[in-house]
């Protein structure tokens, strides 16, 4: 594809994504009074992130359904390491590194099988 | 002012490092879809979102109509509208239209999660600082992945793949441990997500729709079961 054919795609992607983020933030100035809506919005970050974790985390290290189970095992090892670290209230970077090390350790051990 | 900005920068470091690895993978995929490293970099610098960009390069590769691109981006990224709405409730009085327009660009899943879990109202220096490292990490990682990704062994690429999920866990689990309502909300979201992923009749649902449906349903149920106490959110700036 030529660069001039690429540019319209780039503009559409960027513009749509930006407008979705910008409009609610700029237009909504009032405090929401409705108790249900307030509660709903407070739970959104946790439900969104959980929806992103489950079940995608097990596919994060190269596993595909029906594929090499070693990749699945290493992802599960990383998940356990990450869950333990997060449960103990460690910071974002610590938990991310713990999950990576869990995957690395499992991949290292599995190399001998 | 300056201290707030620096605090934002600090909080952005782990996000930026996580992005570095995730966008690295995106860079590799962009090359596979037929883009140049510079085009991949341009996408990351102007979009700053993972799922939308991934779908986008797929559509570019097949030269899909622009309307389809717009609809796909709208659906996949609609969750940001919910997040921006949530954030609008936490904005401090110094957040005028211009500042909101600037920060809106940086409202990613992770930046949103970190910002929302800060106590009190949000001020611009903090939010501006929070955007910086993730933006650099996302752009730099994309370019490195596009330019040099094929040089990296599979072993390392697999290890990096889980980093972003580790960050998600670090946001959800401590909050779920402290607050039973959040624990229930997250559990419901996890169960719905599993159901939508594996039940046969839900297979037609794309990733973006699945996430929206899951988050909206779970948050509705949690809001009905555990409404926040009235007046609790009336924080004075």
Structure write-up:
The complex is a heterodimer of chains A (113) and B (237). Chain A is mostly helical. Chain A has a domain at 34-110. Chain A is 73% helix and 0% strand. Chain A has four helices and no strands. Chain A has helices at 3-27, 35-53, 69-87, 92-110. The longest helix of chain A is centred in the first third of the chain and has 25 residues, at 3-27. Chain A starts with a helix and ends with a helix. The mean pLDDT of chain A is 90. Chain B has 237 residues and is mostly helical. Chain B folds into two domains: 2-162, no CATH class; 179-231. In chain B, 76% of the residues lie in helices and 0% in strands. Chain B is built from twelve helices and no strands. In chain B, helix 1 (2-32) crosses helix 2 and helix 6 (97-105) packs parallel to helix 8 (124-148). The longest helix of chain B is centred in the N-terminal third of the chain and has 31 residues, at 2-32. Chains A and B meet through helix 1, helix 2, helix 3 and helix 4 of A and helix 1, helix 2, helix 3, helix 4 and helix 5 of B.
Task: Describe the structure in brief.
The complex is a heterodimer of chains A (113) and B (237). Helix content of chain A is 73%, strand content 0%. Chain A has 113 residues and is mostly helical.
Layout of strands and helices, then pairs:
The complex is a heterodimer of chains A (113) and B (237).
Chain A: H1 3-27, H2 35-53, H3 69-87, H4 92-110
Chain B: H1 2-32, H2 37-47, H3 50-61, H4 66-77, H5 79-88, H6 97-105, H7 109-116, H8 124-148, H9 154-161, H10 163-178, H11 180-198, H12 207-225
Helix pairs in contact in B: 1-2, 1-3, 1-8, 2-8, 3-4, 4-12, 5-7, 6-8, 10-11, 11-12
């Amino acid at each position: 594809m030529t660069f001039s054919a690429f540019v319209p795609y780039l503009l559409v992607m960027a513009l749509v994504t930006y407008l979705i983020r910008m409009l609610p933030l700029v237009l909504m100035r009032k405090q929401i009074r409705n108790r249900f809506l307030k509660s709903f919005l407070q739970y959104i970050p946790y439900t969104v992130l959980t929806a992103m974790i489950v079940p995608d985390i097990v596919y994060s290290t190269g596993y595909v359904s029906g594929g090499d189970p070693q990749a699945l095992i290493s992802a599960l090892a990383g998940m356990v390491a990450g869950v333990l670290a997060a449960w103990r209230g460690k910071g974002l970077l610590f938990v991310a590194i713990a999950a990576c090390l869990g995957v690395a350790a499992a991949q290292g051990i599995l190399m001998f099988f | 002012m300056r201290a707030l900005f620096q605090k934002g920068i600090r909080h952005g470091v782990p996000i930026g490092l996580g992005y570095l690895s995730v966008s690295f993978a995106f860079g590799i995929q962009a090359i596979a879809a037929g883009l140049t490293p510079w085009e991949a970099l341009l996408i990351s610098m102007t979009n700053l979102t993972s799922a939308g960009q991934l779908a986008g390069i797929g559509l570019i590769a097949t030269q899909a109509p622009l309307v389809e691109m717009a609809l796909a981006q709208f659906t996949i990224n609609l969750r940001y509208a919910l997040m921006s709405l949530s954030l609008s409730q936490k904005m401090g009085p110094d957040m005028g239209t211009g500042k909101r327009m600037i920060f809106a660009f940086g409202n990613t899943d992770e930046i949103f999660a970190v910002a929302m879990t800060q106590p009190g109202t949000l001020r611009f220096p903090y939010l501006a600082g929070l955007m910086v490292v993730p933006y650099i990490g996302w752009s730099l990682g994309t370019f490195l992945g596009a330019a040099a990704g094929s040089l990296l062994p599979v072993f390392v690429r697999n290890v990096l793949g889980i980093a972003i999920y580790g960050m998600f866990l670090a946001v959800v689990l401590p909050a779920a441990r402290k607050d039973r309502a959040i624990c229930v909300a997250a559990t419901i979201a996890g169960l719905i997500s599993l159901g939508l992923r594996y039940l046969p009749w839900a297979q037609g649902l794309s990733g973006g729709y699945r996430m929206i449906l899951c988050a909206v349903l779970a948050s509705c149920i949690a809001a009905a079961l555990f409404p926040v106490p009235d007046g609790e959110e009336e924080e004075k700036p």
